[in-house]
Amino acid sequence: MAATLASLLGQASITDHHQVLSACEAALSKSKNDVQAQQVKIVALLNLDRFQDAIAAVEAGGEEIKQKARLEYAYALYKNGQPGKAAEVARQDASESDRGLRHVEAQAVCSGRPNS
Predict the structure, then answer these.
(1) Which of 68, 84, 101 is the last residue of a domain?
(2) Which pLDDT score, from 0 to 100, does residue 4 have?
(3) 62, 63, 69, 87, 89 from 6: Cα distances, Å
(4) Same domain membership, residue 80 and residue 57
C-alpha cells in the first residue's frame, strides 16, 4: 500500500494539502490500517489547520499511530487549546530526547501558565 500512496502523492503538489489528504483517504479506503497513510493524513490536516480533525484521526487510528504520530498529536492538542493534554502526550516517554516533542511540551506548559 505504501507504493500506491507514494505514487498518488507523487502526482500532488507538495503544497496542495487538499490533494495529499484526498490521496491518503483513497489509500485508507483500501487499507484502513495503513499507518503511513494515517500519519500523512494527520500531517495534511495539520497543514490545513484542521486540528480537531487531526486529533480525531489520531484517536481513531489506534495505539500504533498514537505512538508513531505522537509529535503531530501533541501539536494538534496544543493548537486546539488543550495545552495540559498536549504536554502529557509530549512527555509520555521522558527518556526520549526528541527535540520536537520537547518543544511542544515547553510551549504547552508555558501557555498553560497565567501571565505575570
Answers:
(1) 68
(2) 63
(3) 23, 24, 18, 32, 29
(4) no
pTM, two decimals, is 0.81
Q: At what angle do helices 70-79 and 83-90 cross, to 10 degrees?
A: 170
Is pLDDT above 60 for 13? no
Report the SS3 class of residue 84: helix
What mean pLDDT do residues 37-66 have?
96
Angle, helix 2-10 to helix 17-30, in steps of 10 degrees? 160
- Provide CB contacts within 8 A for 98, sequence distance 6+: 71
Supply 94's cell numbers.
521522558
Percent of the chain exceeding pLDDT 90 equals 57
Contact 39, 65 (CB under 8 A): yes
pLDDT band at 60 (very low <50, low <70, confident <90, very high): very high
| Contact of 106 with 113, CB cutoff 8 Å | no
